[in-house]
Design brief:
A hairpin with a 4-residue loop joins strand 5 and strand 6. The protein has 18 helices and 17 strands. Strands 2-1-3-4 form a 4-stranded parallel beta sheet, sandwiched between helices. A 4-stranded mixed beta sheet has the order 11-15-16-17, with no helix packed on it. The two termini are 47 Å apart. The protein is of the alpha/beta class. This is Recombinase family protein. Keywords: Coiled coil.
Length: 519
């Protein structure tokens, strides 16, 4: 039988079994059973609460599962797969549905045992309670450190951290403090943030991260308190616990959420003051100009450029982002100045057309078509039939009613950031439900020719990507990976290190492959 080993090292544990030990133990078991190990997938410093599909090794594991490349999955324990109970149960059921036997060495779990569901449920609950308890104890300990006069955060520009046996304290770093005062003075005078950044980089002043300065390092977010000019520590007020990271159960990605003001911890430490109150207030006055009552600037349209951040500058390897509507330009040259990068730009239609042809050519192969068919069939089985359509129709009706209520709220209260974000979320879910209803109805009729549909989609790739720009940007980035632009005399070339999604689709099986071509 063919076996796959999965191992994960968790960064949130103080004593973690090494990846090598996990893999060696699983290999020994496979050897005793006479199983042939066809692949080993690992994730380093990845939390068990992260979705399996969001981990590099986990993504490769799922790709092998969909392709039917193994019959046995070997793990040290189920918590290596996932600590989140819902995520763990979802992945296990997908594996078992495809006939994969799951064996865990440390906790004795075997998906062939009759009592596996009880064992899985109990262990999943224990793992989730462990994460909740760990978060609570960590937060309680940090609050205690502040009560004892210590700090609970990390490095802050302008200060050094002095540690003793009980905790850490800030002391002023006079060299960095000089540049903090200089930045505040320049902002108070009304200088453009970009020009301040250019001067800092030209003078060779190290940024908070030790590299070159960017506008974001200075301006940050007035609402979130990030950035040099928003750090209240510079006027002797230590602010902590103003936000938290929450994981989105749909995407598995973390997002920063502001806490209520009454949960903030603010402590006056006058000996850490670097900026005088008058200069601080002048900067606040400038920041407040053009802002709404909640401190936010009017919302901008989301980025829709297909290749923003994916293609890289030939001079500094910085991201190329949209400049105007028809050209990509180097973000470092724009945000950090000529000291960092002399600048580079390229025609948007030209580069998009050329790189999309690469995707189209590479995906028109039997392995990619087979994987697409496998994914579609699995989705159809999960969605079910008529009952699922009724549930989706009911949910669509609920969302349409909510959308109407939001429109009514705009008429009465005006458009706020929160209402605008919710409207966009509802519209995205409505589109998803519409697509799922079409898929379910198609599955109840004549069988789909998925290979033909897949090839037609590739032929009309540009139109398909325009239908959902945000998702398209993410998908193209996953397929292509980083695209390095190269200058060869008067010619511009693109060097592509095949992205993880395309490796899976074309059967690259974990190796980095690449290609290049003239643009």
């Amino acid at each position: 039988m063919r076996a796959v080993i999965y191992a994960r090292f968790s960064s949130d544990k103080q004593s973690e079994t090494s990846l090598d030990d996990q893999v060696n133990n699983c290999q020994s078991r496979a050897q005793r059973e006479g199983w042939h190990v066809v692949a080993i997938h690992t994730d380093t410093a990845m939390s068990g609460s992260t979705k399996v599909s969001s981990r590099p090794g986990g993504k490769a594991l799922l790709a092998d599962m969909l392709a039917g490349r193994f019959e046995v999955l070997l793990l040290e324990s189920l918590d290596r797969l996932a600590r989140d109970q819902v995520e763990q149960e979802t992945i296990v059921r997908r594996l078992e549905h495809r006939g994969v036997r799951i064996m865990c060495l440390a906790d004795g779990y075997d998906s062939h045992f009759q009592g596996r569901k009880v064992m899985r449920g109990v262990r999943g609950l224990i793992n989730e309670l462990y994460l909740d308890d760990l978060r609570h104890k960590t937060q309680r300990g940090l609050h205690g450190q502040i009560d004892r006069g210590y700090i609970a955060g990390g490095k802050s520009y302008g200060y050094d951290i002095v540690r003793d046996d009980s905790g850490s304290r800030y002391v002023i770093n006079e060299l960095e403090a000089h540049w903090v005062r200089w930045i505040f003075q320049q902002v108070a005078k009304g200088r453009a943030y970009r020009h301040i950044v250019y001067d800092l980089n030209e003078k060779g002043v190290p940024s908070p991260r030790g590299s070159s300065w960017a506008v974001s390092a200075i301006y940050g977010s007035p609402v979130k308190g990030s950035g040099i000019i928003n750090n209240t520590l510079y006027i002797g007020r230590y602010t902590w616990n103003r936000s938290q990271w929450i994981k989105d159960p749909d995407t598995g990605k973390r997002r920063r959420v502001d806490r209520p003001r009454n949960e903030w911890r603010e402590v006056d430490i006058p000996e850490l003051r670097i900026v005088d109150p008058m200069t601080w207030q002048r900067v606040r006055t400038r920041l407040d100009q053009g802002r709404k009552h909640d401190g936010l600037k009017p919302s901008r349209r989301p980025l829709t450029a297909l290749l923003s951040g994916t293609i890289r500058c030939p001079h500094c390897d910085g991201p190329l982002t949209l400049r105007g509507s028809k050209r990509y330009g180097c973000g470092n040259a724009h945000d950090r100045g000529p000291t960092v990068c002399p600048g580079f730009n390229i025609s948007r239609p030209r580069i998009e057309r050329r790189l999309l042809s690469v995707i189209r050519d590479d995906l028109l192969n039997d392995d990619a078509v087979a994987l697409f068919d496998s994914l579609v069939q699995e989705r159809l089985q999960r969605l079910g039939g008529h009952g699922e359509v009724l549930a989706l129709e009911q949910r669509r009706q609920e969302l349409q009613e909510e959308l109407q209520r939001l429109v009514d709220a705009i008429a009465q209260l005006g458009l706020s950031t929160a209402i605008g974000q919710r409207i966009r979320a509802v519209e995205r879910e409505l589109q998803t439900i519409k697509d799922e209803i079409q898929v379910v109805r198609a599955s109840s009729g004549p069988s789909l020719d998925t290979g033909k549909a897949f090839k037609e989609l590739l032929v009309n790739l540009e139109s398909a990507l325009q239908a959902s720009p945000t998702e398209a940007r993410h998908a193209v980035s996953e397929i292509l990976g980083p695209v390095k632009m190269l200058m060869r005399g008067p010619q511009i070339w693109a060097q592509i290190a095949t992205g993880p999604a395309l490796q899976i689709a074309i059967g690259a099986r974990g190796c980095m492959t690449g290609c290049g071509g003239r643009i």
